Structure of PPM-type phosphatase domain-containing protein:
Amino acid sequence: MSEVAPDRRPPTAANEDLVLTGPDFAVVLDGASAPPGVDSGCLHDVAWLVKRLAVQLAPPLLAQSAEPLTDLLAETIAAVRASHADTCDVSNPDSPSSTVSMIRLHPDRVEHLVLADSPVVMRSPAGQITVHSDDRIAELPDRSREATRRSRNQPGGFWVASTDPKAAYEAVVGTTDRADIDVIAILSDGASRFAERYGHSWEELLDVLTTAGPRRLIELVREHDAVTTTNRKQYDDASVVLLQGP
């Protein structure tokens, strides 16, 4: 059984998250907005990029392609790049970008791919929790605008889905025996901040998801958002995919 809860931050704004699910896969994309005043070199906004990534990813996933997830993502990034290379400066390091988190289900195993800060959280039937995350951006010694720009999609920096297909091969990937999983959650960082910023454990996060559902988790995040004074971004788009059961 799967549940999906996309949400957009208040006040009303364009939602730059996108959730894509099928019979044996789930994807969460979280677009990254450029800071005000930054020239992305692109005629398109972040929401456009996220939608184009989803449009390119969906056909091979629905066709149950046997290609590795990294190859599928690389081909997707290359196709999206080609679709606007004639109108936009796709060499600009501030081009629109997105996180990508995917899982693909097989009868005996589950594949995951995580590129940038949208984690995949798994719980075993015995209650053991494993968090598959890519926190390289949080580990940058300098988080200034210029340093972040220099580090994006560069060795020693952090990687996102934008205009460089090589980024796909920098993703965190792995495979887990299906018998060792009874719950999977895929979260954009607007939802994972419940554990990553607001002091709750991953156990608590999964308990909320499995007992009250994704919508309740987002409601709780919004309650924290409303009173926080420490986030660089007080509100953020929040999306959750929950898979549990056989």
In short: The helical segments are 46-62, 69-84, 145-151, 189-196, 202-212, 214-227. The radius of gyration is 17 Å. DSSP finds six helices and ten strands in the chain.
